[in-house]
Structure formats: C-alpha cells, structure tokens
Design brief:
- The structure is a single chain.
- Helix content is 54%, strand content 16%.
- It contains 15 helices and nine strands.
- The longest helix is centred in the C-terminal third of the chain and has 38 residues.
- The protein is elongated and about 90 Å long.
- It is an alpha+beta fold.
- The protein has one domain.
Length: 414
Amino acid sequence: MALPLLAFRWSVALGALVLMVTGCAGDYVGRTKGYREAYESYNYPPAIQGFQSEISAGPTIDQLLAMMDEGMVLHAAGKFEESIKVLAEADKLSEKLDFVSVSEEAKVLISSERERAYRGEDFEKLMISTLQALNYGQLGKDEDALVEVRRVNERMQRMINEEKKPYEQLAVARYLAAVLWEDQNHLDDAFIDYAAANELAGDLGTLAEPLVRLAKQTGRDEAFKSLQRQYPWVQPQPLAADEGQVLVVLEAGKAPVKTNGSKTGGPKAEVIAVPVFHDRQWIHDSAVSLDGAAPVRPTTVTSLEQVAKIHLDHRIDGLIARQFGALAIRSGIAYGAAKATDSEVVGLLTFLALSLANQPDLRSWMSLPAEFQLARFRTPSGVHRLTVVAGGGAREVQVDVRPRRVTLVVLRSY
C-alpha cells in the first residue's frame, strides 16, 4: 500500500475520532455542570442565569432540558411565578417534540442518540405538572394547582391503560390533590385521593391521620374500620375551630444520572450503546419539628430514583432494537467504503469511527430531587416556627397557619 494512501486513510479515522471527542465535550451534561453545582450549593442566581443562556443561545436539541432545569431552579429559589412561566413553555415544547421527525430519526441512526432533540422521559413530563401544582399551591392558587395534579393523574392513566406501560401513578400527586381538596373543604374528594395515595404508597406513616379522620367524618364505615386496622395509633379527632394544618413537602436529594452501559448496567458499550440510571450520593436522613417539639421523620411518598429506572427499563428494549438497526446501517456504510476504496482497512476504520461516535443519550433532568418527602402537623392557628434538618444542614421557616386550612411549605435539600 502506498504511503500517501495509508496516511489519508488514517487521517480519516483520526478526524472522525476528533469529531466524536469534541461532540462529547459540547454535550449538555458537561456544559451545564457548573450551573448544577451552583444550584446544589443553594447559589441560585448564577444557576438561573446559566440555564437562561442555554435556552437563548444553546443548541435547539437541548432547549427542553434547559427549560426544565431553569424551571426547577426557579422553583427551588422560591420564584414560583417565574417558574410557572418557564415550565409552561417547557410543557408546550414537550408536546410539540412528541411528533417525531423522520429526518431526525434517520440522522441519529448513523451518528449518535445525542444528536436527537431531547424529548424527556415519561416521568419527567409528569414532573412538569407536579412542580406546577406545587408552584400554584405555594401561591395559594388551589384551583390552578388542582388542574395540574389532574393532568398528572390523567396522563398516568393514559400511559397505563392506553399505552400499556407498566407504571404506577405518582403517590405524591394524589396526596397533593387530596391536600388541595381538603383545603377547599371538599372532604369527599379529599378522602378519595388520600385513599388512592395510601394504596400507591403502601404505608403513609404519619401522613395517614387525615385519611382516617376523613373516613370517619364522611361516613365511610367499612373504610374506617379497615384503616383503623392499618393505622391503629391514629386517633381521628375533628379539627377544632381555631386549628389548622401544615404540610411540609421536602424535595430531597439528587435525581439519578444516566451513564453508559448495557441493559444490566454492564461495561461501557460502543457498538451497542444504551443508558442506565445510577443513583447519586446524598444524605437521606431528615427531620422536621414544629415550635421546637419532638422532630418528625418525613415519609417518602415518591422516589424518583425508583421511578426513573422503571420508566427507562420499560423502553430499553426499543433502544436496543434501534441500536441494532443503526449497527446494520453503519456496517453497510463501512462495506460501501471498503468496496469504493478496494480496502478492507478503510472499511474497518469507517466502521470503528462510526461506532466510536455512537454514544448513548446521557441527558436527563438532573436538577430534580431524588425523593418527595412529606411531614404533616396539626396546630392552633397563628405564626409557628418550622425547623427542618436535611441534606446535612438545618434551617428555620416561619409559617402562618389559618383556621381549618392547610398551609403548604415546599423546601429543597441536596
């Protein structure tokens, strides 16, 4: 083989490798690492600004993810009105992206899944409405919040019944719906959603008090007897005229991240490359106390660590099938290159370059919490002091409790 031809063939392979490396370096996960670090250090302004810049100037294929991240950071920062606007735009874009582009599908078959516009995992789309409900709830807009939790539950039903996906409804959404109904004094509706949350969670712990109380108050005798057996320690006393309630929603920990692996979480793949979710380290222990009383350990009603893996596992076979389709295409391109140059080396190098560029899509909504933990209190109306220990730190929050109302307090910890 002539030396110039050999040098040319190697330069083609090296060029492909350079393109692969620079493409990875520009990947959303790596590019936004600093913004997430600021966010997880409670340093919200630079994180908000960073994700805003991603929305305005970043690649269009990452725009949905940047919107969801900015919406989450604004939510954590207590900027609920702003979060609502950003997440509403993210929701619209998500629906638009659900219409698959044939040209885009063809492109990623010979390049990388990372070249596809990010559409979001199913549970991430549900989380948009969940966060919106919490945003509206914090603003005292119960009706708007109920619209959002209804959307979560309707979407889940559609996924389960029509799309035959092996998911379970999100207990946090059903429990939040119950709280909103109770706050508006719609006690029958509240009981129905508390009961649904109890079924989904299996054990509501200290969160079961309103469920048992409303079973008795709404005259559901059989349900009340069954709940007394499940929660014998609950004494269902009606709320006093000047008594209110506090529900603390602790968005705790860090959502799992995608890494390069096989269906079983095996070694890094190149020819067949699929993502797997891995948990991140965070401090799980948390406690909430009211006015210096004995602390209550919050109950985890939804674990996104579990939900994320269930949703990804359901679609992993489809990802693998698409990878085999891409493998066949890459093999055909390599064969054509070998025939055109009359060189098996060029064919092999072409196949290797295309395979090395084939990387799984490791993007995900990493600013989400790992768990939704809830703690609940009954207390006389007035101003009270909440002490929350979570994420290795402590903070105090003043809450104004109104008679016969449920005060919602949403906090983020990492």
